[in-house]
Structure prediction request, 233 residues.
Amino acid sequence: MNPATAVPVVTIDGPSGAGKGAVSRLLAARLGWRLLDSGALYRLTALAGQRAGLAPDDRAAHARMATAMDVHFSAKEDGNEQILLNGDDVSLELRSEQTGAGASRVAQWAEVRSALLQRQRDFAAAPGLVADGRDMGTVVFPQAPLKIYLTASAEERALRRYKQLKDKGSAVNLAALSREIAERDRQDANRAVSPMRPAPDALTIDSTTLSIQGVVAAIGEAGASRGLWPRFV
Prediction:
């Protein structure tokens, strides 16, 4: 549990395209718990910096932006996410590959990670939290009673992102997307601060051949075995 709030936290870490977002949203809805999309905070920092005209390498200014930006998470009537940045709906823009690349860049900076650390921990509140990210179990919530590392093959992850972006009307090339995902994996795994890796006590789930519901069921069993909730019906 998070020592600051004494509420249960489930962390779901892993690379882009593994299904963390969809699994986290479904699990949080099933449990009636709060949800933290930590990747969105880094994407928002990159996007806010771009909109403000910050120099791409200005770490201090991006750290200040991470602290000051006005962010609101909610769901639309159709169940899709709605994310507001300073009052503007940036839900679609936030999921572009350009914003994702910016997020991977600013996430390497200790100044930005430090600025967002407490903001992320503050999401932990009753009745519980499902935290989606890349260092939730290793850095942000190291005492979480259930830590998941969700992965999938690089080819499957690229294909998922391709379908997702195509469904949203974005023009995207599968080969280019595969290269971008591979580069982001490399950056996230090798950054000096909070590199992406499974926590020592994390349960690794390979979602390559699993449905979202299958992954949620596996996490449900793991949580029930730890006494965090009753078994899912």
Summary: Confidence is low (pLDDT under 50) at residues 1-5. The chain has one domain: 9-224. The radius of gyration is 17 Å.
